[in-house]
Each structure stands twice: as structure tokens, then as C-alpha cells.
Amino acid sequence: MRCPDAATAARMIRLVERTRAAGDSVGGIVTGVARGVPPGWATLSSTARSRSGESHAEPPASKGFEIGSGFGSVQLTGREHNDAFRMRRGRVRTVTNRSGGVQGGIANGETIYFRVAFKPVATVMHAQDTVDEKLQNTTIRGRGRHDPCVLPRAVRLSRR
């Protein structure tokens, strides 16, 4: 498990190990940061937002993608969410960066922040209700070796 805080990483590993022992699975969130992206990166037909979103939405387990304040932005008004621009040290900068470094699909020169949500793995070692090929109610139970969490693999996919 990759996490910049060792204590948090240890808690995450313990959670995944307990979940595996219980025959279940967990999801999680990968957070990415891109620094030094020049202002104006992207074109109108292939924006920074769509480039990032498409590459991170490809893994089947991914269920959500956000840049900056993302889903949390629905709790704000436009005035609260808008990033004010100011001159600082000879550069145009945003005061808050709620946009996560992307505005109107174009990189604005601020640090780009994004998060990708991954669902729990569907295969668990417990009986679950399903329907068979004859359209009859039945149960299915996972067997063999299955990852209890996709995050260790998802980080590699999210680094593209």
C-alpha cells in the first residue's frame, strides 16, 4: 500500500489484511498530484480534464474521478467556488485552487489535484445471491486467490 504517511499506510495495510481474512474486499481512493504543468496545456477538443478522466476511468473498478474540489463543489455557490486570480511574484496565480489546477478544461499553471475512487472487488469468499443461466435464483461464492483491494494495482494504472 502506498501512502506518504507511514502510520496511515500501516493502518491501511492492517485493514486490507483483516478484510482478506474475513473473506471480503474494500475499495479506496487514489490521490494524484501533478506539479509544473504549464498554463494552457490542452486543446479545446482534448482538454486536461478529459485526458485525465479518460485515462483514470479505464480500469473497470474505477467508479469516480474528480479534479480539485470535485464532488464537494456541489456544496458551494459559484461565488464561493470560483478561484480568484491575483498577481504574485510576477505570475498570475489563483488564491484558492478549488479548480484543482484546471479551469475550463485548460491547465491554469497551479498544481493539479485529482482523485480516483475504486470500488471493492466483487469476488468475495461468501455466498452471494445471483441468477444462473437458466434464470433461476441461486448463490455464488468466490474461490481461489483474489485481491481484497485493487488500490496497490490501481496506483500503477493512475500514474499514466
What does this structure look like?
There is one protein chain. Residues 43-49 have low confidence and may be disordered. This protein has a three-stranded antiparallel beta sheet with strand order 1-7-2, covered by helices on one side. The protein has a two-stranded antiparallel ribbon with strand order 3-4. The longest helix is centred in the first third of the chain and has 16 residues, at 6-21. Helix content is 24%, strand content 25%. It has 160 residues and is of the alpha+beta class. It is elongated. β8 (128-131) and β9 form a beta hairpin. It is built from four helices and nine strands, in the order αβαβαβββββββα. It has helices at 6-21, 48-57, 78-81, 151-158, and strands at residues 28-34, 62-67, 85-88, 91-94, 102-103, 106-107, 112-118, 128-131, 137-140.
**Low-pLDDT regions:** 43-49
Give the SSE string.
HEHEHEEEEEEEH
Largest sheet: 3 strands, antiparallel
Mean pLDDT: 87
Radius of gyration: 20 Å
N-to-C CA distance: 18 Å
How is the largest sheet built, in terms of strand order?
1-7-2
Helix-strand category: alpha+beta
Report the β-strand fraction as a percent range.
Answer: 25-35%
Global shape? elongated
Could you give the count of β-strands? 9
Percentage of residues in helical conformation = 10-25%
Q: Quickly count the helices.
A: 4
